[in-house]
Specification:
The structure holds 3 protein chains of 3 kinds. In chain A, helix 3 packs across helix 4. Chain A is built from 8 helices and 6 strands, in the order ααααβααβββαβαβ. A 4-stranded mixed beta sheet of chain A has the order 2-1-3-4, covered by helices on one side. In chain A, strands 5-6 form a two-stranded parallel sheet. Chain A is of the alpha/beta class. Chain A is globular. Chain A has 2 domains: about 60 residues, Arc Repressor Mutant, subunit A; about 120 residues, Glutaredoxin (3-Layer(aba) Sandwich), CATH 3.40.30. Chain B is of the alpha+beta class. Chain B has 3 domains: about 110 residues, Ubiquitin-like (UB roll), CATH 3.10.20.740; about 110 residues, Alpha-Beta Plaits, CATH 3.30.70.20; about 240 residues, Rossmann fold (3-Layer(aba) Sandwich), CATH 3.40.50.740. Chain B contains 14 helices and 25 strands. In chain B, the strands form 6 sheets. An 8-stranded mixed beta sheet of chain B has the order 16-15-22-21-20-17-18-19. Chain C is of the alpha/beta class. In chain C, about 40% of the residues lie in helices and about 10% in strands. In chain C, strand 2, helix 7 and strand 3 form a beta-alpha-beta unit. Classes of the chains: A alpha/beta, B alpha+beta, C alpha/beta. The interface between A and B is medium-sized, with 29 and 30 residues. The structure holds flavin mononucleotide, iron/sulfur cluster and FE2/S2 (inorganic) cluster (2 copies). The site of iron/sulfur cluster has 13 residues of chain B, from helix 4. Flavin mononucleotide binds next to strand 4 and helix 16 of chain C.
Chain lengths: ~220, ~575, ~450
């Protein structure tokens, strides 16, 4: 969810003359990246189709997508700046402004709502002293309210910076998580073992992942908002 | 021929057609916003919903099933359909809001949604009075709104570029503007940003919407979201009259409307002509409106004792005639003009002939590279083709320039042009030469050297014909009044000005804004008369053009009636073979 | 709830069902494990057997009665027959792995635990429809699973299962992974195509259907990840045999993603047509914390919720759920207990749609926000009685072809049903209104508008 609230519905005009964050010297692709992009172009009948991949690449490279980066991505594929900008602003996961080192997307949607997504969100907000949509002063964490992330069986859950999922959240788990994130340790990928596997596979379907977790009874939400 | 039945009336149609466009072509009004015939169909406004059915066919035999009366049984689609997307099919039956309550309700509901977050600022909105949303809300909309919440606030007064201002709250997200820059002008400068109820069209941050055709988005925007930075808050639409005419900025001859209030041209908008400019008008054609209002002359002037002094028209005609009568015809240079109408140039040719001088030539105004292969041309005049067809050739600028400098002419007779300003010669070159000058603006650089200065009516004040670069003859009509009484102009004003909203009573009349000038087709016969020559066309330019089209093959068929509002295509003539 | 499934369960003897989509094989996601267990054999057989023509596969899928698992439940084999005869245009398969429907988390299991089954299904579908390229459009949040699929896809390429002249035949097909970036609407098939083309994910109106004018205006079929994973199983078992599994109207295996207030949530594989009561009380071990059941949302947020007192004898197939005006949707039931505040719940559902609408069509763009506004007002105790009817009327004004795509239908279906079925809760939250209960806009002095003046 974005910071826009239907009850306080204000859409701000983005800065029309932003000072570029990245200089022209920085806005270049490495040879390896260049090669990737060329390969992506090959995958589609038209180059423009690669824009989503290029924007992802840029977000990984630059951390977020300020206007000059979006423009640069567009140019890479012969798209006008405004077309690329239109695409970038359509999708939530492209960060149009700078975020914290860790973006904590807490799902408060649907299953997570009824299983305590808001409880987790509020716990986090209180713990970090920020509201959803804000970044902590130390620039470490951005807390966001997210729509369903496709992990409803392990609600409440969150995603860290468009990457790893953390399932079956509890306040204790949040405490540990924040601590380890502060120490620079991002949790590793967790495989959720299917309930039916518990008898048949000893609860471990994949031997190649370190961390597995089983589904468990979901909490009931105290706050539904 | 295949048929389609709309609200009980059956129409024949040909080829592949979309239902909405077909209805509009038949004069059946269907409310709509996003559809534009020149652009792709997004079907996003959802205003054009209708009920569509097809004759029911027997599954096995494929025969159309008939009811007891022998009429085909019609099977309606379970859902309403957006008519802009529907392809006509033989036997199709359509019910619009006129016959279907369901459709009527759907249109009302949709307008309620459209207005939910739309500001109710019609009283201060430029679009009011010709706003499709306003009109359709009045016609089909709900009585009031049940939306009792804060409306979404979006950026207002955003200068998208030098010429277009955005009020994003008014936008209904029809995407016409973004489709225009993507599909028509190709600049790709606008895109809808964000998503959902937050979205609105914008340039990318820091980008200028400086597309040379940017102002077309103002015309096609169905609400007041995109307005002209220049025209904003200048006039209400119902205070102005609009006159169908053409622009004279270049050789395209784009069809336009001149919008006039109080005898001042306030804006210029495109007028549809599929043979010329389709629906569009370049920005440069629109921003010239000031030249019709500002720096206009105050009556004729003649040089007395070395200085230009005001005179009355009779004195001016006499002065021009005297100059013509006393000069050696071989030392008179007649300059026709690609700015002037066919009629005026033709009369000039007659006058040159009458005094025994060489045929007029005209000064070309070409800016190589300025054109864009679309509506902007290298040629910055509207009637070079008309001149050529009259046998008026472009001058050899080098040669004539040198001869002027050498003082080879005693008299230069200039029709609606500016030899000094155009660089043909310097003002000093004309020091010992008499000049009769028909001119538009006091900024004319030849004016200080004129011996007789005759203010000429401009395109917005006259009647006449222009031929565009493709050989299309188009006539212009007076959009504003000038001083003095001219029956032809008065009649044309009466019949041609479209007062879309007002009545003749609420036209604004301020005599100060009436320019003391005359059309050249009035001046030239008067000068001829003073010379004792007969150039009399009592029926005015219409009669001149009749003569032109009947005597010159290059203009065959170009009567006023034939040209009408959309012009007439002239036969190709071989270069130079004209006249 | 006696053992062996209640006899009237369309899922039949589900207790002894052996899983096919996610069989209990460790490390099945690895290519060598997959091939050891018969993986890619079906593809090999089809490609090597000269007697198997592409149309035969389509016919098998048709015979199996498989319906799409993306939410709309359209018969897959029938959809495939919409593809025109091959011409010189490229042809595409859009594999819908967007899985953004709230409550839905089952495609991800296929991606993680049996990606090659999906790839094999893609290749078989590609062979059946003469398709040269498949794009797997996966939601951007599934970064880790996309990486896993990419790795396995590379293995499959290397082993010659994907790419040029597959398994020595003259059939070639590419599979391209495409990562979304957080837009629910891109799961809608036409929006998915626009997004793939590198544009804003605005759905397109239909017709023309994807089969006529799809990705880059070329013939295209869009299928859900799970749908395609069924295809190798159908080819293996034969369409007729497959059609005997589960409920008659939408046969086959199904992945049930159970969430909410049950003891053991998670993704379960059983035949279609499981009784809701079996799923909740048997499979998932009953209600968490022993609370009573209040409602079930059987297949993602876009399907209408069902009241507890309606679920007796209801099973997870459209025929059965249709009786109470609901649908199977994505086969992922959310179970709600007695304590759930249905107003808050509905409000959050409305918020989801407000947040995710692409904003293209008027009724959807404006209506979703309006609904959220009203629901928020009621939820905060400031509602008017007439708000309740206004919600229902706005719902009617938004769906049923009023918009380009079915997003609006998905948004208002559950809201309408929740308001109707739990109206008492909404009314209880509304303050006694001074305004008459009327939703007429332009009905003269009695109208709601007149009343507010
Ligand atoms: C708003 C909306 C969202 C959708 N999201 C998804 C989705 O996330 N995943 C999916 O497979 N299908 C989704 N669909 C359904 C697709 O449009 C399409 O019907 C489906 O992918 C077809 O595949 P199937 O026939 O195999 O089910 C969505 C539909 C709508 C209207
Ligand atoms: S600004 Fe006008 S033309 Fe552009 S999308 Fe909005 S309503 Fe349509
Ligand atoms: S509802 Fe939170 S992950 Fe689906
Ligand atoms: S005109 Fe907008 S949907 Fe048809």
């Amino acid at each position: 969810m974005s910071s826009f609230d239907i009850q306080r519905p204000i859409v701000e005009l983005p800065d029309q003359n932003p000072d570029p964050e990245f200089s022209d010297e920085e806005l270049v692709w490495t040879d390896a990246e260049e090669e990737k992009i060329e390969a992506w172009k090959e995958q589609y009948p038209e180059d423009q189709a690669a824009i989503m991949k290029v924007l992802w690449l840029a977000q990984e490279k630059f951390g977020y997508l300020p206007p000059e980066v979006i423009k640069f991505c567009g140019e890479t594929l012969d798209m006008s700046f405004s077309q690329a900008y239109g695409v970038a602003t359509f999708y939530h996961q492209y960060y149009k402004e700078e975020k914290g080192t860790y973006v904590l997307d807490v799902c408060t949607c649907f299953s997570c709502q009824v299983c305590g997504g808001y409880d987790i969100l509020h716990y986090l907000e209180e713990k970090l002293g920020v509201h959803a949509g804000e970044t902590t002063d130390d620039g470490l964490f951005t807390v966001q309210e997210a729509e369903c992330l496709g992990s409803c069986g392990s609600a409440p859950m969150m995603e860290i910076t468009n990457g790893v999922y953390v399932h079956n959240l509890t306040p204790e788990k949040i405490d540990d998580l924040i601590e380890s994130l502060r120490a620079g340790e991002v949790p590793s990928f967790t495989s959720m073992t299917l309930p039916q596997d518990e008898e048949e596979l000893g609860g471990n379907r994949r031997t190649d992942v370190e961390s597995t977790e089983t589904y468990q009874t979901q909490p009931r939400a105290e706050h539904m908002e | 021929m295949p048929i389609v039945t709309i609200d009980g009336t059956t129409y024949e149609y040909e080829g592949d057609q979309k239902l909405l466009q077909f209805c509009l072509n038949q004069g059946i009004e269907l409310p709509h916003f996003c559809y534009h015939p020149a652009m792709s169909i997004p079907a996003n406004c959802r205003q054009c919903l209708v009920k569509v059915g097809m004759p029911k066919k027997d599954r096995e035999t494929g025969e159309v099933e008939l009811d007891d009366d022998g009429d085909p049984v019609i099977q309606f689609f379970p859902q309403l359909q957006a008519s802009c997307t529907i392809d006509l099919q033989d036997g199709m039956v359509v019910e619009t809001h006129r016959t279907s309550e369901e459709v009527e309700d759907a249109q009302t509901d949709n307008l309620e949604f459209l207005l939910a977050n739309h500001p109710l600022d019609c009283p201060i909105c430029d679009q009011a009075g010709h706003c499709p949303l306003q009109i359709q809300a009045y016609k089909y909309g709900p009585e009031g709104s049940r939306f009792e919440f804060r409306k979404v606030h979006k950026p207002k007064r955003v200068k998208l570029g030098p010429r277009v201002t955005l009020d994003a709250e008014r936008c209904i997200n029809c995407t016409r503007c973004t489709r225009f820059t993507d599909e028509i002008s190709g600049s790709g400068q606008l895109s809808i940003t964000n998503r959902g109820v937050k979205n609105y069209p914008m340039t990318a941050p820091g980008e200028e919407f400086d597309d040379p055709y940017s102002m077309n988005t103002i015309d096609i925007c169905p609400v007041g979201a995109l307005t002209s930075t220049d025209f904003r808050f200048k006039a209400r639409i119902w205070e102005m009259s609009s006159t169908p005419s053409i622009t004279t900025t270049n050789a395209t001859g784009a069809n336009c409307h001149y919008w006039v209030r109080d005898n001042q041209v306030l804006r210029i908008t495109p007028r549809q002509n599929m043979k010329v400019n389709e629906y569009w008008l370049p920005d440069e054609d629109r921003l010239v409106y000031n030249k019709f209002n500002d720096n206009r002359p105050d009556g004729p002037h003649i040089r007395r004792d070395g200085t230009l002094a005001g005179a009355n028209w009779q004195q001016a005609f006499a002065k021009a005639a005297a100059l013509l009568g006393s000069a050696d015809p071989e030392r008179i240079l007649f300059l026709g003009s690609a700015h002037a109408t066919v009629e005026d140039n033709y009369l000039l040719t007659q006058l040159a002939d009458a005094v025994g001088a060489d045929a007029p030539r005209y000064i070309p105004h070409i800016e190589p590279g300025a054109g864009d292969d679309w509506l902007i041309t290298d040629d910055k005049t509207p009637n070079a083709e008309g001149c050529e067809r009259l046998g008026i050739q472009p001058i050899d600028e080098q040669l004539v320039g040198t001869r002027l400098a050498e003082g080879a002419y005693d008299l230069v007779y200039v029709l609606e042009d500016d030899p000094v300003g155009s660089g043909l010669c310097s003002a000093d070159d004309l020091a010992d030469t008499d000049v009769v000058l028909h001119y538009y603006n006091t900024t004319n650089e030849t004016l200080p050297r004129a011996t007789a200065a005759l203010p000429a009516a401009m395109v917005v004040e006259t009647v006449g014909t222009y031929v565009n670069q493709d050989g299309r003859a188009q006539r212009v009509r007076p959009a504003k009044e000038i001083q003095g009484v001219n029956r032809t102009l008065m009649m044309e004003m009466g019949t041609n000005r479209e007062d879309e909203h007002g009545t003749p009573f609420d036209r604004w009349h301020n005599d100060e804004n009436r320019i003391n000038c005359k059309p050249s087709w009035e001046i030239l016969p008067e000068v001829a008369k003073k010379l004792g020559e007969d150039l009399d066309y009592p029926k005015g330019p219409k009669q001149v053009m009749d003569e032109v089209q009947s005597t010159l093959e290059a203009f065959e068929g170009a009567t006023y009636d034939a040209m009408g509002l959309k012009g007439t295509q002239l036969e190709d003539v071989e270069a130079g073979a004209a006249a | 709830m006696e053992a062996n499934g209640t006899p009237q369960s369309p899922a039949g003897d589900w207790r002894s069902y052996e899983r096919m989509l996610l069989p209990p094989i460790q490390d099945l996601h690895k290519l060598d494990v997959y091939t050891k267990h018969g993986g890619y054999e079906r593809l090999r057989r089809v490609l090597e057997d000269d007697d198997v023509a592409p149309d035969d596969i389509t016919n098998e899928v048709k015979a199996s009665g498989l319906t799409g698992r993306g939410g709309a439940g359209f018969p897959t084999g029938v959809k495939w027959t919409f593809m025109p005869e091959p011409d010189d245009r490229p042809r595409f398969l859009g594999v819908n792995g967007d899985e953004s429907e709230p409550g839905t988390f089952k495609d991800r299991q296929v991606m993680e635990y049996n990606p090659h089954l999906m790839f094999e299904g893609i290749l078989l579908a590609g062979y059946a429809m003469h398709i040269d390229t498949a794009y797997v459009y996966t939601r951007g949040e599934y970064t880790d699973w996309i990486a896993l699929m990419a790795e396995q896809l590379e293995n499959a390429y290397e082993a010659g299962y994907v790419g040029e002249d597959i398994l020595g035949s003259d059939f070639s097909m590419d599979i391209v992974l495409h990562k979304g970036a957080g837009a629910y609407i891109c799961g809608e098939e036409t929006s998915l195509m626009e997004s793939l083309e590198g544009k804003r994910g605005y759905p397109r109106y239909k017709p023309p259907f994807p089969a006529q004018k799809g990705i880059f205006s070329c013939p295209t079929t869009i299928n859900n990840v799970e749908t395609l994973a069924h295809v190798p199983l159908i080819v293996q078992e034969g369409g007729d045999a497959y059609s005997t599994i589960g409920a008659e109207d939408m046969p086959g295996a199904a992945l049930y993603g159970m969430s909410g207030h049950v003891k053991q949530p998670g993704v379960y594989e059983y035949p279609t047509g499981m009784l809701l009561s079996d799923l909740i009380y048997d499979v998932c071990g009953g209600m968490a914390r022993g609370e009573d059941l209040k409602a079930v949302v059987p297949g993602g947020s876009s399907v209408p919720p069902i009241r507890a007192d309606q679920i007796d004898g209801l099973s997870m197939n459209d025929e059965s759920l249709g009786e109470v005006g609901s649908r199977t949707g994505t086969f992922c039931p959310l179970v709600l207990d007695e304590e759930t505040d249905m107003v808050s719940f509905t409000r959050r559902v409305a918020h989801f749609y407000q947040d995710e609408t692409c904003g293209q069509c008027t009724p959807c763009r404006e209506g979703t926000g309006w609904l959220e506004n009203i629901l928020a007002r009621i939820d905060e105790g400031e509602g008017r009685m007439r708000d309740i009817d206004l919600i229902l009327e706005l719902c009617d004004n938004m769906d049923g072809g009023r918009t380009i795509c079915a997003f609006a239908d998905g948004a208002v279906g559950p809201i309408r049903a929740a308001v109707k079925r739990f109206r008492d809760e909404f009314e209880a939250k509304c303050e006694a209104s001074v305004y008459p209960v009327s939703t007429d806009v332009s009905a003269g002095p009695d109208s709601a508008v007149a009343a507010t003046e």
